[in-house]
């Protein structure tokens, strides 16, 4: 898949080093993935993934207090990624410290 | 919306392109908007890839994350890899993922094989053992140093001073009976009146490392301790000449205890710091007990052989050096002692030869001499 929106992940990793291995692993797995529907996503990340809406999956990384919202366009093979605070659910990197 | 798509060179271009991607995300398939989305996605992804700081993830991190993301346990991993120990070793980085493990994990858990095949470091068992050993050794050494330091501090506080030993003169009268008659006496002798053979004999018999140690010998004490633990009879002290001097001059009358031994070591070190080796030898040879009521080399020489120390033969010197170990076991005025006294004297002579203090021939001839004595 093609991923866009990595800037927030980089910034978060720089601030929270303990989260970096998991986030790097997650991104690497997404980059190598060839998803064609939501079931493919669930098969790979079933324990942490929940479908919020059609084409929209939330991955909860509870151990790091964050969630990653994925907007998926399977036709283009595109993942638009946003970092969200797990407590507030809002897309706000600055509150995730 | 302009049909022209700008190349992404700056963060402002990037932010604008991301916004447009968000707007176009739900574009209908086959529409111009969808085509535009696809081109923007390529450009933004390339820009981010070029500016992305992430390194290639470690295969064990990928495996751990996949387990979390898929709700897998270590037992599940053991099922895939074939054994619990393999799973443990892989997760602890003690074993590399083999090609067959990678293939199984990729197939069963849908983890990209390329991510599991990346290079990573494993901790070798030897390195782990060496590291743990070094840490344990450092802790033991630190604790040992603490115990030794505390012991020296506690026992060293109230010990007699060694400051006056430089001017100390051994007294001639040691013990008188009830009516004032001298029953134990000493004939003090200056070191320059004591021939080298006597000094060599005492060093060979009592303290072969005398000129090198700083008052005590850890090797000798360890050897004596192991002997005392293993042997049922004949306790050894492992005391150097300096320790014996400390005991005779400064700790006389104290029982043979561990506490006295520690005090001996502390005092011996202080004596070595304040006196030259020659002075220590002189004091030692004049203070040492030779059995009965005899103290000092001058008295013993005269009593056992009727001679001044300077006139003693090597064999006679060796006999006198044999005495301090057990004076009343080897004294010549007890007839039944003579056999074991000769054995001990011959051992001293052999020791002198082995240490290069006399030649083997001289030792051989001296050993052939009868004990003599008590003339």
What does this structure look like?
The complex is a heterodimer of chains A (97) and B (375). Chain A has 3 helices and 5 strands. By secondary structure, chain A is α+β, with helices and mostly antiparallel strands. Chain A has a 5-stranded mixed β-sheet. The radius of gyration of chain A is 12 Å and the shape is globular. Mean pLDDT of chain A is 86; it is low at 92-97. Chain B is an all-alpha fold and 375 residues long. Chain B folds into 3 domains: 11-51; 59-117, Orthogonal Bundle (434 Repressor (Amino-terminal Domain)); 129-368, Biosynthetic peptidoglycan transglycosylase-like (Penicillin binding protein transpeptidase fold, Orthogonal Bundle), CATH 1.10.3810.10. Helices cover 58% and strands 3% of the residues of chain B. Chain B has 18 helices and 3 strands. In chain B, strands 1-2-3 form a 3-stranded mixed β-sheet, covered by helices on one side. In chain B, strand 1 and strand 2 form a beta hairpin. In chain B, helix 4 (74-81) packs across helix 5. Chain B is rod-shaped, with a radius of gyration of 42 Å. The mean pLDDT of chain B is 88.
CATH architecture assignment of the largest domain in chain B: Orthogonal Bundle
Q: Do you know the CATH topology of the largest domain in chain B?
A: Penicillin binding protein transpeptidase fold
Strand order, main sheet of chain A: write it out. Answer: 1-5-4-3-2
Low-pLDDT sequence parts of chain A: 92-97
Relevant CATH superfamily of the largest domain in chain B: Biosynthetic peptidoglycan transglycosylase-like
Rg of chain B over CA atoms, rounded to whole Å, is 42 Å
Strand order of the largest sheet of chain B: 1-2-3
Give average pLDDT of chain A, whole number.
86
Shape of chain B: rod-shaped
Question: Which quaternary structure do these chains form?
Answer: heterodimer
Note the beta-strand portion of chain B. Answer: under 5%
Q: Which value, in Å, is the CA radius of gyration of chain A?
A: 12 Å
- Using a beta-carbon cutoff below 8 angstroms, give the protein chain pair with the largest interface and the number of residues from each chain: A-B, 36 and 37 residues
**Average pLDDT figure of chain B:** 88
User: What percent of the residues of chain A sit in helical stretches (DSSP H or I)?
Assistant: 25-40%
Low-confidence stretches of chain B: none
Number of structural units classed as domains of chain B: 3
